[in-house]
Amino acid sequence: MSDTHFRTCTLCEAMCGIKIETEGDKVVSIKGDDQDSFSKGYICPKAIALQDLQQDPDRLRHPVRRTASGWEKMSWDAAYDEVARRLNRISDQHGSKALGVYLGNPNVHNHGNILFSLPLLRALKTRKRFSATSLDQLPHMLANLKMFGHQALFPVPDIDRTDLFICIGGNPAASNGSLMTAPGMPHRLKAILAKGGRVVTIDPRSTETSSLASEHVFIKPGTDVLFLLAMLNVIFAENLVNTGHLEKHIEDLDLLKLACHSYAPEIVEGPTGVHASTIRTLAREFATTPEAVLYSRLGTSVQAYGALCTWLVYCLNIVTGHFDRRGGMMFTLPAVDMVSFGALAGQSGHFDKYQSVVRQLPEFGGELPSSTMAEEITEAGDKRIRAMVMIAGNPVLSSPNGQQLDKALANLDFMVSIDMYVTETSRHADIILPPTGPLERSHIDVIFPMLAVRNITKYAGPVFKPADGSQHDWEIFLNLARRLESRDLISSIAAKARFEFMHKLTPDGMVDLFLQLGPYGRLPPGSKLWGKTAGKLISILGKRTPLRKLLEIGPLLRAGQNAEKNLSLSRLRNEPHGLDLGPLRPCLPERLYTKGKKIRLAPRLYLQDLPRVAELIKSYEAQAGKKLDNGFLLIGRRHVRSNNSWMHNSFRLVKGKNRCTVMIHPEDAARLGVEDGQNVTVTSAVGRVEIPAEVTEGIMPGVVSIPHGWGHARPGISQQTAQAHAGVSVNDLTDEMQVDPLCGTAVLNAVPVTLTPVQKRRVRAA
C-alpha cells in the first residue's frame, strides 16, 4: 500500500512543491504538487533525484575513519570523542587560528544547519571561516549591507507584475531564479510576453532564458560594469531620473551622477561589444516603462568587477523609480523573518573587520574569501590552518584552482567532513560524519522565502523515519560543540546544559518561535508576551537585547499582521501545500537598517574602486588589434539538470547527451580547425583540461564556456555514477590569485585561456 507525502524539493532554491509516493522504505514516484501554493505543479528534472539520493548505495550511513587499508566504521561516540580530542589538541598547541571551517551550498537548504550551526562555530572560536558565499553572491550581500544596512536584505524582482524584465549575467530559466526564488521561471517569462511586455537578456552566451526573450544582446565577459555605467550616464544626461516615493529616503544622488559622468555609451562601445545605440535605447526604455526591473546574477557577480556591477544594478533600479514598487525590485516580508531578528541579535553583517594572513583580503560577515583557503593552509606560517571542519561542501570542485586546494588538504594535520559521500574533498578527511538525507528530516525553508517573488511559507515532516543510529546534521553540531567546550568540570556542566536545552528545543522548535513572533504570527507585536518571547530567541542567537529595542521592529511586523494568518508551526502542519501570504509590498523606509533610514546610493568603497574601471578602457585600447589566434575568455554555465557537484551521482540527471563540453563559436572553431565533438585542450595560467568541443552560434566569438561542478575523475571518491560521467572541473582552470580586489570574490568568469585541438589519432593500414 502506497503513502502520499507533500514536500518541498531541496535540490535548488526554487522551492518547488512535490508529491512523493512511497511504499515501505522506497520512493515510488515524485511529481509536481498541483495544489502547491507557490509552484502550482511545476517541477524541473532535478526533483526526481531525491529518489536516487534516498536510495543511493554510495551514501555513507555511519561514521567512518580513514585508515591505510580503507575506510573503517566507527561508533558515533567514538567519532565525536576523537574529532573533539584532535581539534582541541591542535587548538591548545597552536591557537584557534589553526582551525578552519568551510560551509558548502547545501547548508542553506536545511533549516537545521542554518539555525543550529552557531553552537559549533562558537565552540571552534576561529576566524578562519570560509563558505560558498565568496564563490557566488558576496557582491549582492555587500551591496545589501552598504546600501540598506543589512547583508541579508535582498531586493527581489517582482517579476510576475513587471512589463520589462532586463536580465544581465543570469539564466533564470535554468536556475528558476537564483537570488530570485521563482519556480516555473519559463512560464513566468512567457507570461510577461503574453501581456505585451518585453524580456531582454544581456550575456556572452545565448542561454535558455534568451531563447524565450524578446531580444538578446551579446556582451564581452568582464565588461558589464562599463555597460551599467553607460546606462546610468544616459539616464542622468537625458534627465530620466525618477526616485518616486523614495526621494526623501536616498542620499548622495549627486555623487552617483558624477561617478558615471565619463562613461557615455560611445566610450564603452568598443570594450563591451555593445553598440552605443543599443545602450541608449535600453536605458530610455527602462527609465520610461512604469513597471520594469533590471536583474543581475552570477555572470556579473563572480568577476573582477562583481561588487561594482551589483551596486550599479541596484542604483539603476532606484534612480528610475523601480525600487520598492510593484513590478520592480522589492523586499520580501517572510514568515520566518531572519533579517529583523538577526539585526536585533547584532547580526546585520560587517565587512573588513580583519583580513586573511597571506594576501590581506577582507573578511565579510565573519568569513574569509574561499580563494585564500589553500594558502592559509600552506603559506601562513605559524598562523596557518592545521585542521579543517568541512560541512556539506566540496570546494575542491567549487573553488578556484581546485588542484592547489586538493594538495593543500592532503597536508592538513587533521580534517573532519560532515558529508553523506566520499567526495573529491571529503576523501582527504580523517573522519567523515554522515547526516540523514533530506527525506529523513523535517523541512521548512528559512532562507529562500527571503528571496521569493511572493511571500510564502511551507512545512513538512520527514517522509521516512531515520535509520536506527543515524544522526541529523544539527545533532552532529550539538554533540561536537558539547565535547569541544568540555575542558573542565565547570565548562562541562555549562556545555551539557546548553546541549540539553538546544537538543530539547530542536530546529523545529526554534522555527516555531520565529513563526509566532513574525509578521504573520499569533503573538501581537508590541505585547509583553511578544517582547518576552523575542528576548529569549535573541539570546539564543547570541545577544541579550533590551525590551525597548526589541519593540523597535514592532511597527514593521505589525504592518504585515493579518488576523487570518495567525501563524505557528502547528498551523503549518495542517497546510501540506503551503501558504501564500500575498505579493511583495512596498516596505521602505521601515525595512531599512541604515542610520536615518536612508538608502546610501554612493558608499565610498565603490567610488574609491572606480579608477580601476578607467584602466579597463585603457587596457582595451592598448590591446586593440592584438588578439591571439587561440586566446579566449572563459565563462561558466548552468544546466537545468545540474546545480553543483552533488547532483552528479543521480543517474537520472546525468544520462543522455554529455553536457560537460566547451562551447565555441563556429568562426573560432573553423579558424582553429576544431570539429564538433573533437577533444580540445583548454589551458589557463594555473592548469589545463581536455574536453570535447561543442560548436555553436549560441556563444560570442572569442568566448568559450565550460559548466561548473564536474571533474569526478580524481581517485578515492565513492560515487560510482559521478565517476562514470566524470567530465572536467572548470575550477582546475580558474586562478585563486584572481579576485575582485574590492570584496575578495573569486573571479570565475572572463578567465583568459587558450584552446588547441587534440589531434585525432591516425590508424596505420596493415
What does this structure look like?
With 766 residues, the protein is of the alpha/beta class. It is 34% helix and 17% strand. It has 28 helices and 30 strands. The strands form nine sheets. Strands 5-4-19-18-17-6-7 form a seven-stranded mixed β-sheet, covered by helices on one side. Strands 25-29-26-28-27-30 form a six-stranded mixed barrel. Strands 11-10-9-13 form a four-stranded parallel β-sheet. Strand 15 and strand 16 (362-364) form a beta hairpin. Helix 5 crosses helix 13 and helix 10 packs across helix 25. Residues 762-766 have low confidence and may be disordered.
- Bin the helical content: 25-40%
Strands, total number: 30
Rg on CA atoms, Å: 26 Å
Can you tell me the residue ranges where pLDDT is under 50 for at least 5 consecutive residues? 762-766
SS strand fraction: 15-25%
Distance separating the two termini? 64 Å
Structural class: alpha/beta
Strand order of the largest sheet: 5-4-19-18-17-6-7
What form results from the Cα inertia axes? globular
Largest sheet: 7 strands, mixed
* Average pLDDT: 93
What's the helix count? 28
Write the topology of this structure.
Blueprint: E1 3-8, E2 17-23, E3 26-32, H1 49-55, E4 64-67, E5 70-73, H2 76-94, E6 99-103, H3 111-116, H4 118-124, E7 129-131, H5 138-148, E8 156-157, E9 164-168, H6 172-175, H7 185-194, E10 198-202, E11 215-217, H8 224-237, E12 250-251, H9 253-259, H10 265-272, H11 276-288, E13 292-296, H12 298-301, H13 306-319, E14 329-330, H14 338-344, E15 351-355, E16 362-364, H15 373-378, E17 387-391, H16 395-398, H17 402-410, E18 414-418, E19 431-433, E20 443-444, E21 454-457, E22 459-460, H18 473-485, H19 489-517, H20 528-541, H21 547-550, H22 554-560, H23 569-573, E23 579-583, E24 599-600, H24 604-609, H25 611-623, E25 631-635, H26 651-654, E26 662-664, H27 666-672, E27 679-683, E28 688-695, E29 703-705, H28 720-724, E30 751-757
Parallel strand pairs: 6-7, 6-17, 9-10, 9-13, 10-11, 12-24, 17-18, 18-19, 25-29, 26-28
Antiparallel strand pairs: 1-2, 2-3, 4-5, 4-19, 8-14, 15-16, 20-22, 21-23, 25-30, 26-29, 27-28, 27-30
Helix pairs in contact: 2-18, 4-18, 5-13, 8-10, 8-11, 8-13, 10-11, 10-25, 18-19, 19-20
